[in-house]
Amino acid sequence: MTLFAGTLLQILRGFLLIAWVVMAGFTVFTPDQVDGNLAWTTTVVITVYAVRFGWLGLTARLGMNRCYLLMEGVAVTNRFGRVTDSVAWSDVTGIQQTTVVELYMGAHRMEIHRNQSAKPLTFLAPGVKS
Q1: Which residues contact 9 (CB under 8 A, 6 or more apart)?
Q2: Residue 85: phi, psi to the nearest 5?
């Protein structure tokens, strides 16, 4: 998932939660106008957040979508735990780090340049602290 898609999904989850709060307010103040919409809205909100936090817990427990610093070099895995790219420390010629800090999130983009003509190993690490 790209940074743009992740940010967009985070914004959509926020709007979904806001819509649920508005729906709950309408149910309290005018219960005859809603007619059970709060039940399915609550189900959707709980399902979306359960899937989100369940996937985060599963990927953290199984070590997926990570960057591993090893004695031999660096290995980057995808969200299914398979190594997508790696580089040995003997092949590293330079490291370039770009930090992006915004109002609601931060990230570090790392480029590890190699001796060979291969493209650099690039990965994105979320968080403000390096």
Answers
A1: 1
A2: -160, 155
Is residue 29 exposed (0-12), middle (13-18) or buried (19+ Cβ within 10 Å)? exposed
How is residue 71 annotated by DSSP? S
Q: Which two tokens stand for residue 56?
A: 């985060």
* DSSP assignment letter at 79: T
Task: Say what the pTM is.
Answer: 0.52
CB-neighbour burial class of residue 80 (10 A; exposed 0-12, middle 13-18, buried 19+): exposed
**How do the pLDDT tens digits run along the chain, 130 residues long?**
566 777 888 888 888 888 888 877 777 777 776 666 777 777 888 888 888 888 878 877 776 778 888 999 988 888 777 888 889 898 889 989 888 887 777 888 888 898 877 888 888 777 777 6
Q: 37-62 and 3-29 are packed helices; what angle lies between their axes, rounded to 10 degrees? A: 150
